[in-house]
Amino acid sequence: MKIINFGSINIDHVYGVEHFVRPGETLNSGSYAIFSGGKGANQSIALALAGAKVMHAGKLGVDGLWLRDKLQGYGVDTGLIEQVGLPTGHAVIQVNAEGENAIIIHGGANKSILDEDIEKVFTHFERGDYLLLQNEINAVDKILQSSKARGINVVFNPAPMGNEVKDYPLECVDIFIINETEGKALTAEDDPQKIVSKMQSLYPKSKTILTLGSRGVIYKESNKNVQIEAIKVEAVDTTGAGDTFIGYFLAELMQGKEIEMCLHSAVKASAISVTRRGAADSIPMREEVESLTL
């Protein structure tokens, strides 16, 4: 059993600001740094650091070749990453004094997935394998349909959330991993318990994980409902916290561990990540997570 992450690869431009820029405002940045990013790449790195064997599929431009090298350095199999004649996807990230972030994404090479690319990636799958998918690449609907036809377990993180997500064949998803914004968009509910209940009603064959930031996480599956509290830390940058959570949760799940244990490990990993700046660069090593006591 293996996991392939068909996802984005970005260059992150991170600006430290007192507050998020307002309409018509020009704002000085107190700091600036360039990091590797993209939800797909971040989640692959988190999987690798958590001990999982992960293959990343995606596209980048010549300006992003250092990102492929970085993924390889973390232990990610990059054999399905293709260089194309487009700029690498990138993100402009504001991080305010409270450690919260506001992000603008340009898809670039991430948005150039072709039908033949999908077919090539799926030649590496076997029935029962896992596919991890986000919404920062194109052709997500086709990838979901191809997964269903091949008996692959699909884990979908619909971020960034857009109206198009509701038109995807979401019945193909085995595990949804969503935050409150995505949950509200999918269910029209505000209350966390109502969100997971509505997800269960809409997609009865699927499991839902709802991340709540500083309030922890809820897992919903049929009659099983698990809630895990967050670990209190001093956050300096929440960028990549969700990606860290996803990588560690799936790495534990791939090892056959109980859901509660998977969630606890993921919560600990994401708590460590928010105490550091950057996205991929903030993801902790497995040894750090194991040594953190609740």
The biggest sheet amounts to: 9 strands, mixed
Structural class: alpha/beta
CATH homologous superfamily title: Ribokinase
In the CATH scheme, the class would be: Alpha Beta
Overall mean pLDDT: 95
What report would you give on this structure?
The chain is α/β, with parallel strands linked by helices. The strands form two sheets. Strands 5-4-1-8-9-10-11-12-13 form a nine-stranded mixed β-sheet, sandwiched between helices. The chain is built from nine helices and 13 strands. The relative contact order is 0.15. It has a single domain (3-22, 31-291), classed as 3-Layer(aba) Sandwich (UDP-N-acetylmuramoyl-L-alanine:D-glutamate ligase), CATH 3.40.1190.20. The chain has helices at 39-49, 65-74, 115-122, 140-150, 180-187, 192-202, 241-254, 259-273, 286-291; strands spanning 3-6, 10-16, 31-37, 54-60, 77-83, 89-95, 101-106, 130-133, 153-156, 175-179, 207-211, 217-221, 224-228.
Summarize the structure.
The protein is α/β, with parallel strands linked by helices. 32% of the residues lie in helices and 25% in strands. It has 9 helices and 13 strands.
Features:
294 residues; UDP-N-acetylmuramoyl-L-alanine:D-glutamate ligase
Question: What's the structural blueprint in terms of helices and strands?
Answer:
Blueprint: E1 3-6, E2 10-16, E3 31-37, H1 39-49, E4 54-60, H2 65-74, E5 77-83, E6 89-95, E7 101-106, H3 115-122, E8 130-133, H4 140-150, E9 153-156, E10 175-179, H5 180-187, H6 192-202, E11 207-211, E12 217-221, E13 224-228, H7 241-254, H8 259-273, H9 286-291
Parallel strand pairs: 1-4, 1-8, 2-6, 4-5, 8-9, 9-10, 10-11
Antiparallel strand pairs: 2-3, 6-7, 11-12, 12-13
Helix pairs in contact: 1-7, 3-4, 5-6, 7-8
